[in-house]
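Quick note —
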Amino acid sequence: MKKIKSFILFGLAMIVCSIGGVSQNKYITINPSSDSMYVINTHDTVICSNIIGCGHHVFYSLDLDHNSIPDYTFEAWCYMGGSSTQSYIRLSSADSSTFSVDSVTDHEGHYDSLGNVYYTDALVPMVRIYSEFDTLYSSECTISVQTNLTHYYESFYPKPCVQSSLDNWIWGPHYIGIRKRIHGVDYLGWIKAEVLDYYTLVIKEYALNNQLVGIPPSESSLMTIYPNPVGSSFFIRNLTCGKVEIYDVFGSLVMTADHSDNGSEMEISVDHLQSGIYFVRMVEKGQIITRKIIKK
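Predicted structure written out below.
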């Protein structure tokens, strides 16, 4: 009799948790092909701090509920010169959005009183890495403060010394665990990203365990370039007003184009460019966005 009563109570608890149309998931499986996930393709958006030379910050934000308040912001920065070089990619969040952070062992360089270099192990915070089919728990996504994905800092005086180096992310695509709260409902999901080096991040997609209730998809947040690979020309859809710049893989500016009709489709001819990889640099809602294209 006790077992039957326990089963009934468990069933009632499951019904209560599902009322309202959106279940309060405590965990999910990271699976982009799952029918239960609401997956948004970000079309291999590139954030790179040295595409036109180091010494400046590059930001890219995701506004999941389209309320003009960034939920997740990526920052890339690099500096080279003087007696040191430094580069990093960082993530922060706001507007009831959090992500998952882990502590990893890193090798930190130091100088002794004689200027000799020695290294020690230290635990440092880093945005947690998930892989496909990992289980993501809601309780793991609690951080909103700025946290590194990568960080490289090397000083050259009095002797060469790598003072810190986070390179765990530079091994292909990974997933960032995220949680977003709207009207008291927690949504679990991920951001799929690939770090190419200490200053280049490719944001591939983000996903939530349900479509946001009462919030229509934002076309302007889905700016696309097609076709890609590119033939003699390509189109940019949902682009705000501004200048379009195209760079080669060496960071050299190869062409520019102006776009003055907000939200319309723009065709850009690249028939004169040689085959290879290029980066298209655009402005969307005040943000600099870079997309990679392949010229056939």
